[in-house]
């Protein structure tokens, strides 16, 4: 299944086209809102005694950035990272810094690569997520506790596997984003 | 799919400026993050107010999910309970009979203990729990181990108070919001609990490893007397944690201590109890008073 414009299964959901247009507000707000909501994952029913849950909010940021370049501004890492820091349990400021660096880094990678594709996006995302998890652990171990990179391994593998699934979710959210809900005239 | 080329600014001065501004803004964001991170590493409680406020706002979502967790767990328990109902019932009845007689003995020992303590004039802080609440969240993605408690300042929760479940020690309160509190779990790398082996007077420290286990370091070095299956309880030395709350069971014996599994998995306990900070109040007798009758 290729992401060919709006010929996705489910695009018929919003099939009233005459006299309807996508809402500008909705088209802008959806990525911000989904990433901020994913930052609330620490309040989910899972009380973990080991770090097992993939960093969903960061993965959504990477996913939105790779699937829809230019939709999130380059500086989006800082405000979204701030929200994530409030709930993640990391030392405050770690996500503001790392998410900003990740956004700039992905922009540079984008300027460097000449081609886009599923496998390449997956590879880029895997590298970015691995670097993020490792640096997060470094920051957390400075704040308290031992440095043990083996700790993040299960989480890392889970994130690698989960990323393609997450891109499907983002594609569905993208349909929602461009739903024709504004009535013209 | 070829990369979109429309982000190249071309000759437009305005587009050039816009691209430049966005890079400046992003770098400024990173710089801000770095400064904030350094501040919070030097002073971990610097942004506690922001976290507490944010947690207070999001607490209802956590409460709902905590209820979901407990009901989900019960559902699975009910199904597995049906499968092994008969044999388990007989076994439990037997255990209950033994436990009842042990309980009676324990009650007698408890009252004797209270009598002896009164004789020695040892006074302790009152053990009535501050409050009972649910754990409504945990730092599930970070390598730090925190949990979020559904009770805060207005329930009387204060920083430093130990948190336990019916099974054993869970952690201690670190930051307090109005309706929520952040709990440092015993499995966090920063948490150190003074512990004692139940059998024999072997004391040490249990430090978290962030992966559900604790490292136990003994105070007296020498031949390691620990064995697999040894149970450690809080020793109460230094105050803070009330003595004789179960903490961990030894899983692997190392050269100078042991790796132990925590007794009370925070995921398995529906409600936790916040206890007051424990302090043994030892009365220092004035030697001048003793000499003059």
From TrEMBL, chain A:
Subcellular location: Cell membrane
Annotated TM spans: 29-49, 96-115, 122-144, 156-176
Principal location listed in the UniProt entry: membrane
Any single Pfam family the record assigns to this protein: MreD
InterPro entries reported for this sequence: Cell_shape_determining_MreD
Keyword vocabulary terms for this entry: Cell membrane, Cell shape, Membrane, Transmembrane, Transmembrane helix
Annotated GO CC locations: plasma membrane
GO BP field: regulation of cell shape
Record membrane topology: Multi-pass membrane protein
Family: Belongs to the MreD family.
Protein name: Rod shape-determining protein MreD
Species assigned in the record: Croceicoccus pelagius
UniProtKB/TrEMBL annotation, chain B:
A single GO BP: regulation of cell shape
Presence of the UniProt keyword Magnesium in the record: no
Stated role: Involved in formation and maintenance of cell shape.
Superkingdom classification of source: Bacteria
Positions of the Rod shape-determining protein MreC beta-barrel core domain: 136-268
Family, as annotated: Belongs to the MreC family.
Gene Ontology, cellular component aspect: plasma membrane
UniProt keywords, alphabetically: Cell shape, Membrane, Transmembrane, Transmembrane helix
InterPro entries membership: Cell/Rod_1 (IPR042177), Cell/Rod_MreC_2 (IPR042175), MreC (IPR007221), MreC_beta-barrel_core (IPR055342)
Record-given protein name: Cell shape-determining protein MreC
Pfam families, A to Z: MreC
UniProt source species: Croceicoccus pelagius
Residue ranges of the TM segments: 20-42
């Amino acid at each position: 299944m290729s992401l060919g414009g709006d010929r996705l299964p489910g695009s018929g959901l919003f099939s009233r086209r005459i006299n309807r247009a996508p809402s500008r507000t909705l088209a802008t707000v959806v990525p911000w809102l989904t990433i901020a909501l994913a930052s609330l994952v620490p309040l989910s029913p899972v009380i973990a005694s080991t770090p097992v849950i993939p960093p969903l909010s960061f993965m959504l940021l990477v996913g939105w950035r790779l699937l829809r370049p230019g939709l999130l501004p380059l500086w989006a890492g800082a405000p979204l990272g701030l929200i994530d820091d409030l709930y993640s349990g990391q030392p405050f400021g770690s996500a503001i810094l790392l998410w900003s660096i990740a956004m700039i880094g992905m922009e540079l990678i984008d300027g460097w690569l000449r081609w886009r594709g599923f496998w390449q996006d997956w590879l880029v995302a895997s590298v970015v997520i691995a670097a993020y998890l490792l640096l997060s652990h470094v920051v957390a171990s400075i704040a308290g506790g031992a440095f043990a990179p083996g700790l993040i391994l299960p989480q890392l593998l889970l994130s690698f596997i989960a990323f393609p699934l997450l891109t499907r979710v983002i594609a569905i959210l993208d349909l929602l984003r461009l739903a024709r809900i504004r009535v013209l005239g | 799919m070829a990369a979109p080329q429309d982000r190249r600014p071309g000759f437009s001065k305005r587009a050039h400026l816009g691209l430049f501004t966005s890079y400046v803004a992003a770098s400024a964001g990173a710089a801000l993050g770095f400064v904030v991170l350094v501040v919070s590493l030097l002073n971990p409680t610097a942004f506690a107010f922001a976290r507490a406020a944010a947690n207070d706002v999001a607490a209802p979502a956590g409460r709902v999910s905590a209820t979901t967790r407990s009901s989900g767990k019960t559902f699975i328990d009910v199904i597995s309970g049906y499968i092994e109902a008969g044999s388990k019932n007989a076994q439990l009845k037997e255990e209950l009979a033994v436990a009842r007689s042990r309980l009676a003995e324990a009650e007698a020992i408890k009252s004797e203990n209270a009598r002896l303590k009164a004789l020695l004039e040892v006074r302790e802080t009152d053990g009535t729990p501050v409050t009972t609440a649910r754990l409504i969240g945990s730092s599930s993605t970070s390598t730090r181990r925190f949990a979020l408690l559904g009770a805060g300042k207005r329930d009387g929760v204060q920083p430093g108070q130990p948190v336990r479940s019916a099974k054993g020690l869970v952690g201690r309160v670190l930051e307090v919001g109005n309706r929520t509190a952040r709990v440092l779990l015993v499995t966090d790398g920063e948490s150190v609990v003074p512990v004692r082996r139940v059998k024999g007077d072997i004391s040490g420290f249990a430090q978290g490893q962030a992966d559900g286990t604790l490292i136990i370091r003994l105070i007296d070095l020498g031949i390691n007397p620990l064995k697999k299956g040894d149970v450690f309880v809080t020793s109460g030395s230094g105050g803070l944690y009330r003595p004789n709350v179960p903490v961990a069971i030894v899983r692997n014996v190392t050269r100078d201590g042991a790796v132990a599994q925590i007794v009370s998995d925070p995921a398995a306990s529906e409600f936790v109890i916040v206890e007051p900070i424990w302090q043994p109040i030892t009365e220092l007798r004035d030697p001048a008073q003793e000499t003059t009758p």
